[in-house]
Amino acid sequence: MIIRQFLAWTQDDSTARRAEAATHLARAFLYGGLDAEETWNARTALIGLLDDPSRQVRLALALACASAPEAPRALIIALASDQADIAAVVLARSPVLSDADLVDGIAIGCETVRSAIAARDRLSYAVAGALAELGEVPSLVALATNHEAEITTGSLLRMVARHGDAAPLREALLARPDLPLEVRQAITARLAETLAAFAVDSGWLTPVRSERASREARERATLTFSVDAHPIDLARLVTHLRRQGELNAGLILRAILSGRMAFVEAALCDLTGLGGNRVAGLMLDSSGAGFTALHRRAGLPEALLPAFSGALSAWREASRGRVEISDAALSRRMIERALTACEAMPFAEASGIVALLARYEAEAARDEARLVAKALGEVAQAEEKARIEAEVIDAEWRDAQARIAQAPDYADLEATAAPAADVAAPGSVAAILDGLSDALMREFAQGVERTPPTATTEDTIPDTLVASYRADRVRLAA
Predict the structure, then answer these.
(1) Torsions phi, psi of 8, nearest 5?
(2) pTM metric for this prediction
(3) Which of 136, 139, 204, 145 is CA-nearest to residue 165?
């Protein structure tokens, strides 16, 4: 009987009445415990409501059935193909939809639909990959902020490759706690390219200078990411750089001059195919034939071999405590050793290398100066803070002394005050005593009464001795 009433309401002329009937009918079907005949009637009626011309009725139907695993699949599939706001409701929540249904929704849907799918709980790798390939910035941002979504490294890199110039997407990706190093490096590279293009368009830099600045910024960021990285993550980063054509001799030389030997070992292992222990052993003997063979097998330019050997020699001495390496990103000691090693080379071969090392030396000097300036600034701030605190304390002391000097003197008050004065002068001892409580005054009085009187001279000298002394004084006076 109840189902028939709901069916009658669905034929009402009022849109609001039909929407209410759709909601109640869906809830009765899902949670009403109907028998077989009523269940079939209700299911048929719900599917029939898909033809209702009012968007409000279909939206009410979607809201009532979106989260129910018992909802008819035909109903959910039809609602997922409806208008964007109606489809987004079921695509975002319905457990009835499979990965194939979601991928199809991504392919034919708009950004509203894709964003709804991207926000689903426990999104699978396949659906995330489809979004990475087809989604625009809004849906990709929703996917990146969904930390429960399963996203492969390849999908993340694809997102960066397609829309890495969008700041909201970069921020969302960098906020992910499990972001791989290669994805972080790719984001940094896109940011450097965006800034370089902006500098060229603004006329601040020439294209050549802008490209050099962008490359050096990428190299610095890459080495920063590699600090304390796990060997597996470091190997994946090096592989990514090689595939992108960014694992070059300049980056490896910068890594040596910066003391990032773990990155250097990973890079040489990737380029040569040798094991880590073998590469580390050859790096310890940079002047021997073994390192020369390693250098050639890695495909590095022959002209850079003296610079590599000189820098590694300085690093080896530093590891033994013979020289001190500064805390700057680039070591000036190692750069000087590399420059010295290149002095014997022909000018045609050494000019480019010397120019590169000179830029590294200038960069290292700026890094060291920046660190020193920061330390001096912190010392100056501490000294200024101490000086201000001392001035405040001195001013407070002087103010207290001035208030004491202006207060009336107690001796003057005792000499000028009338015996019957009822009001004590401010700041006098009487005013202080008047402020004490009665209980405290009674306790003080009792203590005074309990104090034994001070012994006089007469109480301590015998009477006979006193009489004799007085008699002697009489005789002397006569």
Answers:
(1) -65, -40
(2) 0.70
(3) 136
